[in-house]
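hey so u asked for the seq, here:
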Amino acid sequence: MKPLNGVRVVSVEQFGAAPYGSMFLADLGAEVIKVENAAIGGDPARKTGPYLLGDADSEYFQTWNMNKKSIALDLRTPGGKAALERLVMDSEVVLNNLRGDLAAKMGLDYKTLSKLKPSIVCVHLSAYGRDNERASWPGYDYLMQAEAGLMHLTGEPDGPPTRIGAPSMIDHTTGLTAMVGLLSALIQARATGTGCDVDTCLFDVALHQLGYAAIWYLNEGFVPERQTRSAHFSVAPVQTFPTSNGWIFVMCLTEKFWMALLGVLRNPAIGADARFANQASRQVNREALTKTLDVEFRKQTTDHWLKVLGGVLPVAPVNEMGKALENPFLHATKMISSVPHPERSDFRVLSNPIKINGQRLGQAVCSPMGADTEEIIGVRLPLS
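ran it, structure tokens below
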């Protein structure tokens, strides 16, 4: 049995943030009922290419929607609203990632739904929040990276501001943040019989990712800048180095790991150099340290360095994505799995990164748009 068996979540969601978060709940055993807008043909992600899976599904869509059921409702119609209200009575959570001003207008907030069920938990994931002057603003991941300062910190010092390379990182972190709030409120509601509103937004979560860089600025006025070679702001050597055939990332975050690196390099001159005697001096002299270590790392291949440094100090190859996904380690840990899809019998996906009792969580593709409407609602509703 999965930990969230018996939990029913109704999610009025589309695209990335809420779907990513609710997929974790579904993978962990919750019954996640995805409410798709019948008037527009469902979640727009279903038709986002280039890799489609039939007429109303795509690899893009399935990325965020494994293990979910789908019902098609038009919440602007009396029939759609009535169906949702019946569903709320048999659910514990209602989640949405609508624009901040729409949840209350559509009756998805606690003030409205508590009249039907006082214990209901209403989770709102918006672009900028529901209680400020930007509540009506649309917003997406990349905009948050830009305004929150993340793009300013990403890339080489002489390059333009750059977004995080992997797609949807702020969507994902916001989705997971929402799930922490959701599960906390659910525990409280089960204990007290009283639900609540839970809010988070893309902008707040993006800003929160500044971490200690923000704390340094707020308290010391320090403005961190982009670092050469993706280096750490204050610890050295923590950065990339070129090997004879690629790149490697080395992280000597502690003196222990610096001494371990010296032991492998076996170059007494580096250890005796006063410029590299301690963490503070290595940071001050990072440019000289980089040049010195570049010479050493270029002497051997990436595989060689992984062999002699792996398990000795924190180190990793800098892989292009294809090589990262073909890494034998992923297959050994079962981080890639195959699930059947009506359009593709061997559809390969990333496994959920959570294990329960050492086992990966079972996965299945999301139902076709509206396929579960009659079973869940008890009546077949018109699509518009």
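The domain at 228-242+247-317 is CATH 3.30.1540.10 (formyl-coa transferase, domain 3). Residues 374 and 380 are 5 Å apart (CA to CA).
lmk if thats what u needed
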